[in-house]
Structure formats: C-alpha cells, structure tokens
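Cross-check.
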Amino acid sequence: MKNLSKFKDKVNARNLLVQAMYEFSFGHNSPQEIEKSFIKNFTKTKVDYIFFKNIFRYLTKSYAQLKENIYESAEFELFGIKTIEIMEENIMLIALAESKFEETPKTIIIDESVRLAKKFGGDNSYKFVNASLEKILESYK
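Predicted model, tokenized:
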C-alpha cells in the first residue's frame, strides 16, 4: 500500500473547497470574505493553502463558464435527473478547475471527486459525479 500522507494537505484542501464553494453558491459573502474566513478558521488543519487559494479564486472568477460546461455534458438522461444538487455541482466545479489549473491526472481528479461525493453528497451521487466527470473531462481543457 502506498503512503498517501504526503497528499493529505491537498485532500484536506479539496474538503475545504467543497465547503467554501457551498458557502459561495448562496451568495451571502464575497469570495474574498470566504477565502479569508477559511484560511483563518482552519489554520490548525494541514492544508495546501496555495492550492486552496488558486483553485478557489479560479472557481469564483470562472464560475459561470465552468457551470455551463457541466450542464452541457453531465449525464442527466443516464441517471434520469433534471438538475444537479448544489454539493454535486460544486464537486464537479472543483474537478474542472483542478483539471484546468493543476497537472493532476484525470483518474485522481475523478477518484477524489467520487470520494468527496460520498462524503458530502447524496446517497448515490458519486455514481452521477463519476459518470459525468468521465464524459466532461474527456473533452475538457
């Protein structure tokens, strides 16, 4: 078994990104306020803050375009759904931002997104996230 402890900081950053994007999606606070709050409140957590800041800033600036990319390609028909829940949408937004901004392999992005969907999403949301990201990331970059 591989030692994944060196990746823990990035894993924790993704967890915080899901929470920060959840707060952002309600529009009550500015991206700057959210970023400042998360960095202040989670200083004791081992987090890759450079990764967090870069992805969060990219997400908030490119929010509409990234969201459009998801809605154009997500597997709605396959799963018989009409809309995407906020948490699943945010997880897929983070995946798209990471694939655009970082050099993380597609398989890791999908695996991490599935993990996040199991942790933060609905019961079977990870299946939708997995299938949709497979399709979206094929054509994305």
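Residues 5-139 form a domain with the N-utilizing Substance Protein B Homolog; Chain A fold (CATH 1.10.940.10). The chain has one domain: 5-139. Passed to J.P. for a second look.
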